[in-house]
Amino acid sequence: MPSKKPKAKLAAGTNTHGDLTEQYTAELKDLAAQAQIEDASAGDLTPYLKALAVLVLLGIYSNISQLNLSPVYGSIPASVYHVHVLVAGCFAGWAGNLALRHALPRALSTPRLLAVVAAYVPVLQAALFPLSERLGARAGPAVTEALTLGPVAVLSAAWVADLLGDARLPRLPSFLADAAPGLGSWAVLKSAEALSGRVLGQHVGKVLVLTRVAMEAILGVVYAALAPSRIVALAVLPGLLHTALLNPHVMTPRAAAAVNATLAADGWVLLDRKESVTGYVSVVESLERGFRVMRCDHSLLGGQWTVLQGKQVAEPIYGVFAMLEAVRLVESREKVADKDANALVIGLGIGTTPSALVAHGIDTTVVEIDPVVHEFAAKYFDLKENNEPAIADAVSYTAGLVESKKTYNYIVHDVFTGGAEPVDLFTLEFLQGLSDLLDPNGVIAINYAGDFSLPAPKIVIRTITRVFPNCRIFRESPVREDIQEGEADFTNMVIFCQKGLPADAGLRFRPAVVEDFLQSRARQMFLEPEHEVQKLDFLLEDDGEEGTEILRRNETGRIEEWHKTTARGHWTIMRTVLPSKVWNLW
């Protein structure tokens, strides 16, 4: 039976061939559009997967960039302009991807250029770090990341824009069509940055490939693998060789020997170094002046004199750590002998205070989050222990102690690094937990370091005295008489508080005796607290009214903002303690 063909109805005078051509053309366009939609829903996912990979790599690179800057500038100064550099780089790359593509020679595409740039970032960082003294803690991190992370962000964003521009996206409403790829890419980038940051925070430094510079070099290799080319291989090889053989920041014996060869000219020696969960940790010694210190990123955790007047010694170089031991000297209605007392020390440093408590026969438990800090304290600073240390986060560990109804006669709270205290350990909730851990007549000593020209110390003191009403406050050094209004006043202070005292009773210290000094000249000088500050100075606002603001969990934003100023001031002080070469070579 013959098939039936549709007959077109033609109006008089119409060009039949032309109308049929237009009709078929329209039908073909509709079919092509439909095929494009169907192909996009079940077609080639390669552009999307490549874009995802590039965004994840940039998120990881963002964290590693910060890790590399923190030993030279400190984690807080390094973070101030970090987001600005990342946003500006991504925006420039996304908006200018077409111009970049046309500007590059055919042999050097955006992916290939990204691989080359990434391979030379460690080289450029090593060249820029010696300029830190000239650039300072404000401009230094911004300039360094603008010249290293910035180009990586520009090229990564341009590559992602190229990939998503070539991909066949499903049809979207017009108001979403332009914004969706960019917003989605930024969301993926920030998610990758957050996730990789948590992973790196737990595993950095555990093996060589997870150290800072090694991870940058590995990322350079990964970028090269994503854009395979003989030209790229030849271009990245010198950068990778420089990193492996000449970069002083690589955690290899060869690099450490090169660092010591450089430091020896100034009378310094690097005894050990490792990367760990709280930062880059090292022990350096001044052969000329006879002392050694432990550093974490751009801060000192403590130090000891090793030689005084030609004699081998092990004396603390900072008076504040000897002052903390005065927690034993606070008089109590029910005196507890050292052999019957127990103590909890939160924050180890080089172990000056817990070692002294152990030497006095006190059952002492140390809580320290960083295993490398504990390792170096035991290896290089003669740490004394009579209990297994708790290598754990203090917030969760002390919460467990509260649940188990554990109590202590003494608590020493000594946590500080990089120009700022960990704010979670000064909140009302954390301090209330420490109060629960104190014996009814127990004493707590809290070391707080900060800029006393800023409001943060007042808020911290109000928070402490809300939990422990009976306190006395002592500075490590007296107030400078020549200090000008608005000038930084950075120092340590120790707040001694006693639980169970009547509201009108005052905390008192017994006089120190020979046995308290442990044959230490430093303790003879600093054990008994001096330079007392009146508590009322911290409780009143500038207008004379009593302040009420305290530090609560999830309300730490203002303190963290002030940390930016405090950390920069601390950076300047640290550069007077150790020469810039020691900080820059890390």
UniProtKB/TrEMBL annotation:
Signal peptide, first to last residue: none
Keyword line: Transferase
Keyword RNA-binding: no
Classification via Gene3D superfamilies: Vaccinia Virus protein VP39
Record-linked InterPro entries: SAM-dependent_MTases_sf
Pfam families named in the record: Spermine_synth
Protein name: Polyamine aminopropyl transferase-like protein
Species for this entry: Hapsidospora chrysogenum (strain ATCC 11550 / CBS 779.69 / DSM 880 / IAM 14645 / JCM 23072 / IMI 49137) (Acremonium chrysogenum)
